[in-house]
Design goal:
By secondary structure, the protein is an alpha/beta fold. Helix 1 packs across helix 9, helix 4 crosses helix 5 and helix 12 crosses helix 13. The longest helix is centred in the middle third of the chain and has 22 residues.
Length: 596
């Protein structure tokens, strides 16, 4: 019988594979191994100390810090004690950290370093339930004293001295329906809501996602997305303790590309913005290549593209085409993937936001099995994904085993599975709106095709109804615009208006390359956004998109945003999704000017 709580799953894996490598981290230029036994014993010590300091079963403890072994050891330490683990984005301002700590009723707060500790100092008098703040990187804090503060090393030493009987009792007392983690939504439409995921939710999901694309002890992943997001938590914690592969933590957030090459993972995953960045970098490199290399690349790519189109439409690939592709792969794509750290990837996932079909098809064309998945925090991360070798362009695959998906009369996607969450913490109104008769109302609009594949058309709240009464799906048009190598993101506007306009965020790398090739003088991002030739370039890209759209769907006007969008300014979420509400407000003058 499969264990249905995280402590039981964790203990079972440690009993089986205790001395094998569980994770790696890089320090001073060297990769260091941590065994399953070391991982478990550290988590047990953290758990024992927390229980000793008053962490009760069902009580919350929060964590804020970048991806590292300490983060997941703390996470599992909390769960072994029957506590509720709450992750907080490192990029959150102190006011947002205060909100999550208070809203989750956290009794303990783990912070990575001085920068995160400073956030707590701004609200320390406003969190009456907080018993202790524990910091794991004490650099610069040697002389800082506070009765509420202690180091993680001191906490672990305290746990080492304590009997583990109480921890074992807590582990056995945890039930599948108990709260395991609170995952706070990114807040695209308002204040973040704490989604309650139970032990049953996360253990079921860790099993179900591997049924389609199996994961095993020999696999390696690279952990770099925010751990407080369900996407990374699934791979770095929940599926990890179940399937016992190796998690490699990036050295720093800005060394992802270097660490990717060093690790060369066998299973990859990232948000679309990451895959799009790699795609742009490849386009730039190829534009700078010699004429011979360009011709060879284009010839091989056309073969790969033809093959990908057939495969993604479930058609048989002729033997001659497969042979030509293998030659092209051996001569070109194999080397390209090795240079990027992708050569061992058996499967790679794109999730958390829609990805451009052009980008997805590009990776399939070079022989990389990048597939799009769909889900939300409230469904424990995954609802649909493609089967091995059965990716279908324009869809997010079929429901994972044990998941039922249906389309409501108004087009909303409804989900039912053992992964559907227990509700929002202290938010009955939000829960009642999202959970009805066992069905999760996703807020997304979509359709199921003849092959049973789900196609997402838009967010229900984002549907545009023009002044003429036409319903427009902005996501569809925005994805077409984002297929351009010069457009990083786009926000379509036109609700109750006579025509559609767009706010454009340019792809800086490719636009800079275009400017340099065309001797356009600039010194800042704003210079590029204002330049007439750059605007002509974007207009030509929009014209190409308009040709494939109905007249009512045409983008009549656009403006390049004068600045990049930053999470700190409230314009994008930590997973790089644009917050329409905030962008519409921040650039209201530019929008109105397009309608004058």
């Amino acid at each position: 019988m499969t264990a249905s709580t995280t402590p039981a799953v964790f203990e079972k894996t440690v009993d089986t594979l205790g001395d094998t490598v569980a994770m790696r981290y890089k320090e001073l230029g060297l990769w260091h191994d941590i065994s399953w036994r070391q991982y478990f014993e550290t988590a047990m010590n953290i758990s024992a100390a927390l229980i000793d300091m008053g962490l009760e079963k069902g009580t919350s403890a929060a964590i804020i810090g970048d991806n590292c072994p300490e983060w997941v050891m703390i996470d599992m330490g909390i769960q072994l004690a029957g506590g509720v683990s709450v992750g907080i984005y490192t990029t959150n301002a102190w006011q947002e950290v205060e909100y999550v700590v208070n809203n989750s009723d956290a009794h303990f707060l783990f912070v990575e370093n001085e920068e995160q500790l400073d956030k707590w100092l701004n609200f320390r008098n406003n969190v009456p339930l907080l018993k202790k703040v524990i910091v794991w990187d004490t650099k610069g804090l040697k002389d800082f004293k506070d009765p509420l503060l202690m180091s993680l090393s001191a906490l672990i030493k305290q746990g080492e001295k304590l009997e583990k009987k109480r921890v074992q009792e807590r582990m056995k007392a945890v039930k599948p329906d108990d709260m395991c983690v609170l995952i706070y939504t990114s807040g695209t439409t308002g204040p973040p809501k704490g989604a309650i995921l139970t032990h049953g939710n996360v253990t079921w999901m860790s099993e179900s996602i591997a049924e389609l694309n199996p994961m095993e002890a020999g696999d390696e992943v690279l952990s770099f997305l925010p751990l407080c997001h369900i996407f990374e938590r699934l791979f770095s914690v929940f599926a990890h303790i179940r399937h016992a592969y190796v998690v490699n933590f990036v050295e720093k957030p800005d060394t992802v590309t270097d660490n990717m090459v060093e690790v060369s993972p066998t299973v990859g995953y990232a948000v679309p913005r990451i895959w799009e960045k790699y795609f742009s970098a490849i386009q730039i490199k190829m534009s700078e290549a010699t004429r011979f290399k360009k011709l060879a690349y284009m010839a091989a790519f056309k073969i790969g593209q033809h093959r990908a189109e057939l495969k993604m439409n479930f058609k048989k690939t002729p033997a001659y085409l497969e042979l030509l592709f293998q030659i092209g792969h051996f001569a070109l794509f194999r080397k390209l993937k090795k240079r990027l750290g992708f050569e061992r990837l058996r499967v790679a996932y794109s999730g958390a936001a829609p990805i451009s079909g052009k980008v997805l098809q590009f990776y399939q064309s070079i022989g990389m099995n990048l597939i799009e998945g769909y889900g939300q925090t409230e469904g424990t991360g995954v609802t649909c994904t493609s089967r091995p070798g059965k990716a279908k362009l324009g869809t997010v695959g079929m429901p994972i085993p044990g998941t039922e998906v249906k389309i409501a009369e108004d087009g909303e996607i409804l989900v039912k599975s053992p992964g559907v969450f227990a509700g929002y913490y202290k938010n009955e109104e939000g829960t009642a709106e999202t959970l009805r008769n066992g069905w999760l109302y996703s807020g997304d609009v979509g359709e199921i095709d003849e092959d049973g594949y789900l196609k997402i058309t838009d967010r229900k709240k984002d549907i545009i109804i023009t002044a003429g009464g036409k319903n427009i799906s902005p996501q569809y048009i925005e994805n077409m615009l984002k297929a351009s190598i010069y457009i990083n993101d786009a926000v379509l506007i036109g609700d109750r208006r006579k025509y559609l306009v767009a706010l454009i965020m340019i792809d800086e790398d490719n636009v800079v390359k275009f400017a340099q090739d065309n001797k356009i003088q600039f010194s800042t991002y704003g210079d590029l956004a204002r330049d007439p030739k750059i605007n002509e370039l974007i207009q030509s890209e929009i014209n190409n998109v308009n040709k494939a759209l109905a007249r009512v769907e045409n983008v009549r006007k656009f403006r390049i945003l004068p600045k990049k969008l930053y999470e700190e300014d409230g314009e994008v979420t930590p997973t790089m999704k644009v917050k329409r509400k905030y962008v519409n407000k921040a650039f209201a003058d530019i929008i109105e000017e397009m309608y004058r």
